[in-house]
Amino acid sequence: MTWDELPVVVTVAPIGAEVTRADNPALPHTPGEIAADVAACAEAGASVCHLHVREEDGAPSSRPELFVEAIELIRDRTPIVTMVSTGGAVWMPMEQRMTGLEAGPDLAGVETGSMNFGEDPFVTVPADARRVIDRAATLEIGLEAEMFDVGHVVAAVRMVERGELPAPLRANLVFGVPGGIDASPEALDAMLRPLPAGTHWSVTAIGRHQRRLLALAILRGAGGIRVGFEDGVFLRRGVLAASNAELVADACDLVRTLGRRAATIDEARDLLDCPLRVETG
Ligand code: KMH
Ligand code: ZN
Prior knowledge:
The chain is an alpha/beta fold and 281 residues long. Helix content is 34%, strand content 19%. The structure holds (5S)-5-amino-3-OXO-hexanoic acid and zinc ion (ZN).
């Protein structure tokens, strides 16, 4: 298959830990709202959802019951690939960041380095990453490395070389977080350079260059792109998105305009090597 025939896995990140209803009133809070939102995003073309959870009042949370309920409700409605964040919020200790793993998602993110996240330290030392990797292995959950700067990519590749992170790597390259790498063509080149062949790489971009960087990634052969309120609440400059599903539909339009197509959920499961989990017992 040539790069242009490869379907693009569109991930939706509907919640995050920083965005609020003051930024966009359509932000989902409860597991029921999250599941309804994710189901609409799957209809619109998303094949993976990257999840955080919130308390009913919108406060970022790490309560495992909320992850369990959200994932159960999502699975009732759609076979979309479920992925939990283990980045959580900057103020969460590692134990809290890891609670989503216990809900048995298909995939989990793993941070491979530390950085400033805006004004705050966002710390993941190698022992923290290994904790996530070990627990995910025990629970048979696949991992996607979440990387915000070049050193994080180099660290992830070393973890693969040492046999800590399974190969082939699933990589999400994040651009434009203040404190991380910028959202520029040169930054995309720099983040791609250390990645071994066979990596499934996806691009997330924050800020005003989001759409341009996603377009560039699609044309560079990205395996995936990510959109959703976690990464941006605007459809266009000054125009709030009505919903996460609207952002997904727009991302799928962009994929098509550039001569590629969005992956179906089955194709995403194949490309990401994460078959539908069949619970036994
Ligand atoms: N909320 C950020 C501190 C992730 O989910 O992997 C971390 C984050 C990354 O959102
Ligand atoms: Zn996240």
